[in-house]
Amino acid sequence: MKWSGGIWVGIGVFGLLLQLPLAAGSVFEEQMADSAAWGGDENALVANETLDGRPVLKFTLPGRRHCQFNGNAVGKNALKLEIQRLDTDFWLTIRLGSRPYYDCFSAMVPIAGEGWQTVIVPFEQFLPGFDVVYSSPSPLAPEAVIRGKIGGAILPLEELNTVTFGSYWQISHRNEPIAPYSFLVRNIELAAIGEGERPAGAVEPERSRTLDEVVKKMVAGEAVTIDCIGDSITAGTSVEQPERNAYPSLLQAQLRQAFGNEHIVVRNLGVGGAFSFELRLWAQRDLTEFPADLVTVMVGFNDRIYNVDREIYRQAMLDYVDRVRHSAAVAPALVLLTPSPGLGDRYHTQDELAEAIRTIGVEKQLPVVDVSAAFQALPMEEFESLMADFAHPNKRGQALIADRLAALFRQAR
Which one, of 295, 369, 368, lies nearest residue 327 by Cα? Predict the structure, then answer.
């Protein structure tokens, strides 16, 4: 994060930070002013403190802390608070819902720089959370679920009564533990913001890069960065030395050799346990913190464990594609990977999701690396020899994924 001090205001797919003075005279919600009112995970800490004679709350995360409030959200359209980081820059997950631990709607905002910042997050920036997206069955159409908003059928304003800081996630990219981070909070309120408190408008992307453009840079010896986004399969779970043997690292080695270019960097942004919903929520963080020429994405195994409907998954991935394409004035190229099959009764559970990715590739004119078909084309005994456990490929299985990806780049040469 390269910004400091000011007001974070969410708008469009991504938010913008405005260098504005902190708002004065906010009312510190009495229900939230006492740390005793904040329940949550034992590893997430909250304490009362005083700064310059004013009461503040100090949070130390990761983990979750939630507070129920009595205020009526009718007529409000944003969450507003003042926050000051104490150690390192971080991205804060904020959740709004109708009861503690109910993962209703979530947003992520960057907290960076020195001093107090006023954070304003319009309700439309919050995305439906795990319990909404994966509730089965839902009376709403899949698109209405994925693109649901606070104040709609999922969470009427009359029922909004809980705010949560943090999430259940204890790990981040490459399954590395999230280091503890601390911050101060004051003046938490539901607000009715006007157009004057918003940026003039979101910047529309000029265009998206193409695979051919990225390959031309590789051939020319220019620096190229590729981000591999996904779940535990991408992170390299169950593989010895995943920093060397997960497919992102193997892909980097193959591309450098194939193109004679040591300036090709492939980063592993896989997170074990991730769902398609999490990728949508993390898109803003991942694509601004780790800007790339090209992004690959493979997710779905965990969605299927929770029996997510094919159309819900398809709508989530369509939304993710839109977020990638709106992540920068010149957005990164995007390559989709079909989710890989598992062992035993998990062999065919990904088939519908793999087909959904194929159809998205056609609809959005995106290249697709069909990992599912590559594994299922093998004799069963050979396929089983490529698996470390029921879900995760071993080193040889990871190499197969890297081979298929590398072939895509070589063919575009």
Answer: 295
For residue range 335-392, list pLDDT tens digits in order: 999 999 999 999 999 999 999 999 999 999 999 999 999 999 999 999 999 999 999 9
CA atoms in the 13 A half-sphere facing the CB of 365: 5
The secondary structure of residue 158, as a DSSP letter, is G
Mean pLDDT of the chain: 89
Whether 337 and 279 have beta carbons less than 8 Å apart is answered as no
The CA dihedral of 107, 111, 116, 119, to the nearest 10 degrees, is -20
Sequence-distant (≥ 6) Cβ neighbours of residue 133 within 8 angstroms:
145, 146, 275, 277, 308, 312, 316
Count of residues making up the chain? 413
- pTM of the predicted model, to two decimals? 0.91
Find the angle CA(218)-CA(329)-CA(408) to the nearest 5 degrees.
30
384 φ, ψ (degrees, to nearest 5): -60, -30
User: What values do phi and psi take at 294, rounded to 5?
Assistant: -150, 145
Long-range contacts (CB closer than 8 Å, 24 or more residues apart) made by 19-27: 20/118, 22/82, 22/116, 22/117, 22/118, 23/80, 23/118, 26/80, 26/82, 26/187, 26/189, 27/187, 27/189
Place of tokens 């920068």: 328
pLDDT at residue 403 greater than cutoff 70: yes
Structure token pair of residue 204:
């529309």
Measured between alpha carbons, how far is residue 135 from residues 141, 274, 283, 360 in Å? 12, 17, 22, 24
